[in-house]
Amino acid sequence: MADKRTLLAVIGDEDTATGLLLAGIGQINPSTNEKNFFVYQEGKTTVEQVGEKFDEFTQERKDIAILLINQHVADLIRMKIDAFVDPFPAVLEIPSKDHPYDPEKDSVLKRVKKLFGE
């Protein structure tokens, strides 16, 4: 199952997505026009759009190994993030330039603490 998963995907604000695209993670399938990135724009992007893109990257796409999502964007769909327990793709919350990282909100760290009985 994991051998076909080769891509990183990102759901993030413009600065984060741009930086990761400049680093080389961008992939556009020429036949279907599927992208492995989604740019969240505050005030323009709806919570439903973020949720749909999260579902696409985690349930429909079988080529994504790791999904990076800005923590402030993940907060918009926190219930979906916390409910996602599949091993692939790994969902990692990352900080953005304007929103600091809060480890208390991170779903992965919450699961680790639960495993260790904290």
TrEMBL record:
> Which keywords, in A-to-Z order, does the entry hold?
Hydrogen ion transport, Ion transport, Membrane, Transport, Vacuole
Q: Which organism is it from?
A: Huiozyma naganishii (strain ATCC MYA-139 / BCRC 22969 / CBS 8797 / KCTC 17520 / NBRC 10181 / NCYC 3082 / Yp74L-3) (Yeast)
Task of the protein = Subunit of the V1 complex of vacuolar(H+)-ATPase (V-ATPase), a multisubunit enzyme composed of a peripheral complex (V1) that hydrolyzes ATP and a membrane integral complex (V0) that translocates protons. V-ATPase is responsible for acidifying and maintaining the pH of intracellular compartments.
- Kindly report the protein's main subcellular placement as a broad class: membrane
PANTHER family attached to this UniProt entry = V-TYPE PROTON ATPASE SUBUNIT F (PTHR13861:SF2), VACUOLAR ATP SYNTHASE SUBUNIT F (PTHR13861)
Pfam families noted in UniProt: ATP-synt_F
Signal peptide annotation = none
Question: What is the protein name for this chain?
Answer: V-type proton ATPase subunit F
User: What binding partners and quaternary form does the record give?
Assistant: V-ATPase is a heteromultimeric enzyme composed of a peripheral catalytic V1 complex (components A to H) attached to an integral membrane V0 proton pore complex (components: a, c, c', c'', d, e, f and VOA1).
Its Gene Ontology molecular function terms?
Answer: proton-transporting ATPase activity, rotational mechanism
User: In the UniProt record, which is one GO cellular component term?
Assistant: fungal-type vacuole membrane
Similarity comment: family membership? Belongs to the V-ATPase F subunit family.
Would you say which domain of life the source belongs to?
Eukaryota
Annotated membrane-spanning segments are: none
Q: How does it sit in the membrane?
A: Peripheral membrane protein
Q: Tell me where in or outside the cell this protein is found.
A: Vacuole membrane
Q: Which InterPro entries match?
A: ATPase_V1-cplx_f_g_su, ATPase_V1-cplx_fsu_euk, ATPase_V1_fsu_sf
Question: Mind giving the lineage of the organism this protein is from?
Answer: Eukaryota, Fungi, Dikarya, Ascomycota, Saccharomycotina
Q: Which NCBIfam families match?
A: V_ATP_synt_F (TIGR01101)
